[in-house]
Design a protein that fits this description.
- The complex is a heterotrimer of chains A (345), B (485) and C (169).
- Chain A is 61% helix and 0% strand.
- Chain A is mainly alpha-helical.
- The termini of chain A are far apart.
- Chain B is globular.
- Chain B has 13 helices and 17 strands.
- The chains are: A mainly alpha (345), B alpha/beta (485), C mainly alpha (169).
- Chains A and B meet through helix 1 of A and strand 15, strand 16, helix 9, helix 12 and helix 13 of B.
Chain lengths: 345, 485, 169
């Protein structure tokens, strides 16, 4: 009898790129729900737009590069890019913002470098950075959280769709009336106006941990991240190093001057700390290779984030920190090759 | 230095199926095909001709170089041919084999038991080599040269490897259950050959019956040199370097051998075969083969004569059951997929797996590497398979060398965990020969340079001596002239 | 602003001085020659127009020779030198000799050998054994294939063959 042959090993774990991406999406889902609870349905529209454009851009790029649509289009990586980018944008941002950012991320930051696996920079962060630098005004139009004790004007579902697709507010609303700075921006403004941190946190927008609404979102992201750790989709090195590198300087500066520098609970639950630690910095393609390299990489991101937040020109520094450490990855990899069995250290 | 195995995988063993029935010796076939190069090293040189009558156990090919093994007839009969035949360990090139037609007489060559303790270690290792002994764990490395290297130290530690970590294979398990005393007898012989003061028998903890049998035999023997040690069941804990690290806590140096560390590792099957040769005078002419897989009707462990066609073993196991996806020689992680089943059983044939599609999980479409790092977590040698993959694709051999490609043991753990389904182990197997060629030519260039420089030096020295002699002569001549007038 | 420019110039000057003083030109030249020599096949054949591999390496380090003058090294050596020196790679210049697909070694037709030792003197790596009036033979494992022994033989009993041909003969 004759048989077909193939090289060893003949068993492979039933793992796939798509499975990894799908589990990451599941881990993000509770945070998206929490976001909608506090800030309205705007995020859902942004996510839908972001994902559709990401998939469309991916399809165009694959065709231009003569690559088959299956399995690359369905591997889930473009969907993740679209979702992460949408989560970084204000819920009422005009449609062309997420569309251009998403297309730029997939076409320029991913396919120009060679597609899946070859991009040195995190595509979602590249898209976000481009939008932040090109359209700063639109990226400050955040909404306040929907909390019962805060009597604020809120756009309804219809208003939300109108604003996003028409690119401007309906007649009965103004930006001043409905927007509110994020906790990081609010803290920054208050401190620069001479208030102490305690006075700044007396604002009803702040809760025990940090900005209300945002603290819940960050906690669900932490939960999702821990779930991914348990499933071994991500490893602990990057999230632990990044969060430690935010928390330690925050705690130190807070001890030095409690009035001028927010503490670690604020920083860890504000902005993109948790999203960055568990979902953005852990993007394996643009991160360092070895475990020691990952620790350095994560720590670098955390430290740069803290520096930008405290002394830099932007309220949150995660995007730029990630991009800067992406650039440093080849250097980190060169110097953190682990010792091989049987070789001297 | 670490003691625990780095990485590795916990795999379903699939060994229950083949360990339900006792060992069975199957009858010799009508014809045996015995490849001359079925061991690591140089092929054996035939000492018989076509048409010769041979007895079972008679020497038919001799080891002629340092690393080689001799070969013995596994049946009595006539040498039908000495010609190339397909062999399981070489895909496209047949190997020269001695083909013997069984005359049914079962006449055995005269076999004398030997008092091994009376022989000195050198003589004993040579005698062991005369029995055609090779490592029966699957690599078939000739035992005599390995012993000789071990003898260069003083009293190394002997380790008997009964780990058998790869899924599906259970031949060592059954051997330990049924022939524990013979294994320990082989251990004693090996201890004498190596002047070893200690022998540790390593058994994975998924073999409780085998462990009990070995402990009982060891207790009955009252030999304090021999210790039975249980180790956790992780693939590939049974690899030679991995076993040594688990037992001693030291790492085998990359540029050296275990004997350099004062350790020698042999398979339990090899020890039993040595005992059979010393005590019963039977050289290595049969071995236990696990015949298993969901595609076999009656899986079990059979003792087969070397050179038996594998189809015979399948028939003795009730034949195939279902549509076979792959016929593997070895286990599911490192086994060779055979293109046909009429290939002969060789010294390295530890297992045959007739696998149905459900037994295997064959690779899907290959995607680009997403740099997830699962591979380096799983690698027992602490390599970065991800980086090896990128550099193997770009044929960057100096990077492959510095990242340790030559240390790869091809266990397949990285393949197993890769979400992009990249055939990493095969890629590394393909890249190694090119790297070896590069390293060899660099070695040769270094030698040529040394010879050139010493020749240059020699010529300069000769020239300097000649000039010195001429200068002396000139001086003597001028002195003569001045004094002679 | 002027101050900033002056400070930058000062820092640059200091750092340049530190770098320049860290090794002399001669040391750098020697190090470069050594590094180039390591990448050459050590055939010592002279096809590059220099008397050995080290002189060729020194010439490349001085800029007096190009990186593609070594046929025994082939395109792989030319590329290795290009990588080392940061130049674009180029194939071996055919004017210096043909790049052979398989390495050749010298082989002496022993019955025809008259024992004159001319080939022994010519071999740059002492790969021929023999003495005056005794037969000569090539140690195949040590032969680099430089072909310097072929011309001096007065009876033409030495020729270049592939390694497998020599093994079978």
């Amino acid at each position: 009898m004759t048989f077909a042959t193939s090289p060893a090993p003949h068993v492979v774990a039933p793992n796939s790129v798509r499975r990894v991406m799908v589990l990451v999406l599941f881990a993000l889902a509770p945070a998206i729900v929490m976001h909608v609870v506090f800030f309205g349905v705007g995020l859902l529209v942004q996510v839908s737009l972001g994902v559709s454009v990401a998939l469309l851009s991916e399809a165009i790029a694959l065709k231009l590069r003569d690559k088959p649509l299956h399995p690359f289009l369905t591997d889930g990586s473009a969907i993740i890019t679209g979702v992460l980018l949408a989560m970084c944008l204000p819920p009422l941002a005009p449609w062309w913002l997420v569309v251009s950012g998403s297309a730029f991320a997939v076409l320029f930051a991913k396919h120009l470098y060679g597609g899946l696996g070859s991009n040195p920079f995190n595509p979602a962060m590249v898209g976000y950075a481009v939008l932040l630098v090109s359209f700063p005004a639109q990226l400050t139009q955040w909404l306040p959280p929907q909390l019962a004790d805060l009597q604020l004007m809120r756009p309804g579902v219809g208003d939300t769709f109108y604003t996003i697709f028409m690119g401007h507010l309906p007649a009965h609303l103004t930006w001043d009336a409905i927007t509110s700075p994020t906790p990081l921006t609010s803290m920054r403004n208050s401190l620069s106006m001479g208030m102490t941190m305690q006075e700044a946190q007396a604002n009803p927008m702040f809760g025990a941990l940090g900005g209300r609404g945002w603290d819940w979102i960050n906690l669900t992201l932490l939960g999702g991240g821990v779930w991914l750790l348990v499933l071994r989709i991500i490893r602990w090195h990057i999230p632990a190093a990044m969060l430690a590198a935010i928390a330690v300087p925050a705690a130190v500066m807070n001890a030095v001057d409690p009035g001028a520098y927010p503490g670690l609970t604020f920083h860890l639950t504000a902005g993109a700390s948790m999203l960055g630690a568990f979902f953005i910095a852990t993007d394996p393609i643009s991160a360092a290779t070895s475990n020691r390299g990952k620790l350095i990489y994560g720590a670098g991101i955390g430290l740069i984030t803290y520096v930008i937040r405290t002394w830099g020109g932007y309220p949150d520094g995660v995007a730029f920190a990630v991009l800067m450490m992406n650039a440093a990855v080849p250097l980190i990899d060169r110097y953190t090759v682990p010792r091989v069995y049987g070789h001297a250290p | 230095m670490k003691t625990a195995l780095h990485g590795g995988l916990r795999l379903p063993g699939n060994k229950q199926r083949s360990t339900q029935k006792p060992l069975r010796l199957i009858p010799a076939p009508a014809q045996v095909v015995l490849p001359l190069d079925q061991h690591a090293g140089a092929a054996a040189i035939p000492v018989v001709k076509v048409g010769d009558r041979v007895l079972r156990g008679q020497l038919i090919a001799r080891a002629e170089s340092e690393i080689s093994a001799s070969l013995h007839a596994s049946v009595a009969g006539t040498v039908r041919a000495i010609e190339p035949r397909p062999v399981p360990y070489q895909r496209n090139a047949p190997s020269t084999c001695i083909v013997i037609d069984n005359d049914g007489s079962d006449a055995a060559a005269s076999a004398a038991a030997v008092d091994y303790a009376a022989l000195d270690p050198r003589a004993l290792s040579e005698y062991i080599g005369n029995g055609g002994m090779v490592g029966l764990g699957g690599a078939a490395f000739p035992t005599a040269p390995k012993l000789r290297r071990g003898q260069q130290g003083d009293g190394p530690q002997l380790i008997l490897n009964g780990a058998e970590c790869e899924p599906w294979i259970s031949c060592d398990d059954m051997l330990m259950r049924e022939s524990a005393q013979q294994i320990l007898r082989g251990a004693a012989i090996l201890c004498h050959a190596l002047q070893a003061s200690r022998c540790i028998v390593v058994i994975e903890d998924d073999k409780p019956i085998a462990e009990r049998a070995m402990r009982a035999a060891q207790a009955a023997l009252h030999d304090e040199r021999i210790v039975i040690q249980s180790v956790p069941t992780i693939y590939p804990a049974g690899g030679e370097n991995q076993v040594i690290t688990t037992v001693t806590g030291l790492e085998v140096p990359a540029s050296g051998l275990p004997s350099d560390m004062g350790v020698l590792c042999h398979n339990v099957g090899t020890a039993a075969a040595i005992a059979r040769w010393i005590d019963d005078g039977e050289p290595l002419i049969r071995r236990i083969v696990t015949v298993t897989g969901s595609g076999i009707s009656e899986p079990g462990n059979l003792e087969a004569w070397l050179g038996t066609p594998m189809s015979e073993l399948i028939a003795q196991s009730g034949g195939y059951a279902g549509s076979i996806a792959r016929l593997l020689m070895g286990g599911s992680m490192m086994g060779l997929a055979l293109p046909r089943d009429d290939l002969p059983v060789v010294k390295a044939s530890n297992c045959l797996v007739a696998a149905l599609p459900a037994d295997l999980h064959l690779r899907g479409t290959e995607m680009p590497c997403i740099r997830c790092g699962n591979c380096s977590e799983a690698c027992p040698v602490m390599l970065l398979p991800q980086q090896l993959h990128w550099f193997a694709r770009s044929h960057d051999f100096s990077a492959l060398e510095s990242l340790g490609l030559m240390d790869c043991i091809e266990c397949g753990c990285c393949d197993y965990v890769c979400p992009s389904q990249i055939p990493l182990a095969q890629q590394f197997r393909d890249a190694k020969p090119a790297l070896i060629e590069r390293l060899t030519s660099r070695q040769q260039a270094l030698q040529a340079r040394q010879r050139y420089e010493s020749r240059d030096e020699r010529l300069e020295r000769i020239e300097a001596e000649r000039q010195a002699k001429l200068a002396e002569k000139r001086k003597a001549m001028t002195q003569n002239t001045t004094s002679g007038g | 602003m002027i101050v900033a420019i002056l400070v930058m110039i000062a820092i640059g000057t200091v750092l340049a001085a530190v770098l320049a003083s860290s090794s002399s030109t001669a040391q750098r030249q020697q190090l470069l020659t050594e590094r180039i020599n390591e990448r050459l096949p050590q055939t010592q054949c002279g096809r590059c127009t220099f008397t050995g591999c080290k002189p060729y390496a020194a010439a490349v380090a001085r800029g007096e020779a190009d990186i593609n003058q070594c046929p025994p090294g082939g395109d792989a050596t030319a590329k290795a030198l290009a990588d080392l020196l940061g130049r674009p790679p180029k194939p071996v210049d055919p004017r210096f000799g043909a790049v052979l697909p398989r390495p050749l070694v010298a082989w002496i037709d022993e019955p025809a050998c008259i024992g004159c030792t001319k080939c022994i003197q010519a071999c740059p790596v002492d790969a021929i054994v023999g003495a005056s009036k005794f037969m000569h033979t090539v140690i195949t494992a040590q032969c680099t294939g430089c072909e310097l022994c072929v011309a001096p033989c007065p009876v033409d009993c030495i020729e270049m063959r592939t390694v497998t041909d020599v093994a079978l003969s």
